[in-house]
Write a structure and sequence with these properties.
Layout: E1 12-14, H1 28-41, H2 45-56, E2 69-70, H3 76-100, E3 108-111, E4 115-118, E5 121-124, E6 130-132, E7 137-140, H4 143-150, H5 157-175, H6 178-187, H7 191-220, H8 225-237, H9 240-246, H10 261-274
Parallel strand pairs: 1-3, 3-7
Antiparallel strand pairs: 1-2, 4-5, 6-7
């Protein structure tokens, strides 16, 4: 994937190298235990950590107490992330009003190392990248890119861009009013139903990442078949069934929160081929 034509965004909060502790938050040890428990049970670790944060905070999300360097980073990794984010801004500013009748609001992407604070509680590298709807920010420890190569068998610039675009997909879901509805259903449902709703939400974000890639390529002609294969390999590697198998456990479909390898590949390629937001309705 070529990124030389992409505009670098300045909507970056670079906290790399900063201490991640915050008064009243969960300790790193607790976060690690909850993360491991989540992978073992098939429950999204972010849900466990967020719940624990709310208990520790008296029922309210932990307050954000950190701010890093604002603007476009100058290092190679930070530049790459900023360019991908900038291209999501440029694409969705045009596409979202045309296809969904909504104006696009640019989110901030927080780069961090190890642990930091978010509007949804503690952000910890073991959780992977995520979007927090409460502060409308994306959180990314770029060490996840190395983990994709070493542990998950994925990797490559377009695969990394797909990961960022997936989280931007959640931001779009929030802008169109889907995420509040999803959270309400999950709060009122049993665990099995909540997991099923989570899967549909995550697969839609995969599809929206594909829609973004379609329009990026229309603008820059900067991805080829090998790039697509990288992204497909990554989507497959982070399927719930593959992750459960790699952790030595049995595959439990009712515990899936993101979708199987086959589903993730299917919905990514659906968006990539169509370029249409309406093709991403996983709740139909």
């Amino acid at each position: 994937m070529r990124d030389d034509d992409l505009r670098a965004s300045s909507n970056i909060d670079d906290r790399r190298g900063m201490s991640g502790g915050a008064k009243g938050g969960l300790g790193i040890g607790v976060v690690l235990v909850l993360t491991l428990l989540g992978w073992a049970t098939g429950i999204d670790p972010r849900l466990l950590i967020g719940g624990a944060e709310m208990v520790a905070g008296g029922g309210q999300p932990a307050q954000v107490q950190q701010q890093g360097r604002q603007g476009t980073p100058t290092d190679a990794t930070g530049q790459f992330v900023a360019k991908v984010l900038g291209e999501t801004e440029d694409v969705w500013t045009q596409v979202l009003p045309k296809q969904a009748g909504r104006q696009y609001q640019k989110p901030v992407l927080v780069l961090y190392s190890g642990v930091t604070r978010s509007g949804c509680g503690t952000a910890q590298s073991a959780m992977g990248p995520f979007y927090c709807p409460l502060d409308q920010k994306l959180y990314l420890d770029t060490s996840f890119f190395q983990d994709m190569q070493r542990k998950l068998g994925g990797g490559g610039d377009f695969a990394y861009a797909y990961v960022i675009a997936h989280e931007v997909g959640h931001h779009i879901q929030n802008l169109i009013g889907l995420l509040p509805k999803v959270q309400k259903v999950q709060q009122q449902s049993d665990q099995r139903t909540a997991n099923q709703v989570s899967v549909r939400t995550e697969l839609m974000a995969d599809c929206l990442a594909g829609v973004w890639a379609y329009h990026m390529n229309q603008r820059h002609q900067n991805i080829d078949d090998s790039d697509v294969r990288q992204a497909v390999a990554t989507a497959s590697a982070i399927g719930d069934d593959r992750l459960q198998q790699s952790s030595g456990g049995r595959v439990v479909p009712d515990s899936f929160t993101h979708g199987s390898a086959e589903q993730r590949v299917q919905w990514l390629t659906t968006g990539l081929r169509s370029g249409q937001v309406q093709s991403c309705d996983t709740f139909k």
